[in-house]
Specification:
Elements: E1 11-15, H1 19-29, E2 34-38, H2 41-50, E3 55-59, H3 67-77, E4 83-87, H4 93-96, E5 102-105, H5 110-124
Parallel strand pairs: 1-2, 1-3, 3-4, 4-5
Helix pairs in contact: 2-3
């Protein structure tokens, strides 16, 4: 499926410590995008090194490396990857200042996720 379709499919890396959330994003996005998953910030950073995605969806609150800390590391490694933050909590001002491309509040709606992802990828062109 990855190489069987004309043109390159955008790749999206979803990082969330909750498997059901990662799976929900994957179900929403898999028909139009190549979706990769990471359980935590450390796994996210490893995947960015080996397969930089076109976009990252990053959970704000995770055990170990928090979303803001992971975002700082992402920005250090590759400034050009757009990052959408997702959380059930209000978005802190300091995270907004780290250069995010959008915010998805949990619980999220499929149409809203797809719309935002497409807008961010279109703006990246």
């Amino acid at each position: 499926m990855k190489n069987g379709q004309p043109g390159k499919r955008h790749s999206i890396l979803v990082c969330d410590d909750e498997e059901n959330v990662r799976e929900s994003f994957s179900l929403i996005l898999k028909d139009e995008f190549e979706v990769m998953q990471a359980r935590d910030g450390a796994e996210l950073l490893e995947k960015i090194k080996s397969h930089p995605p076109d976009l990252i969806i990053l959970d704000l609150k995770m055990p170990g490396m928090s979303g803001p800390e992971a975002l700082k590391q992402i920005r250090h490694a590759n400034r050009s990857i757009p990052v959408i933050i997702t959380s059930a909590y209000k978005l802190p001002e300091e995270v907004k200042n780290l250069g995010i491309s959008g915010f998805i509040e949990k619980p999220f709606e499929s149409k809203a996720v797809l719309k935002l992802v497409k807008e961010v990828l279109e703006a990246k062109k």
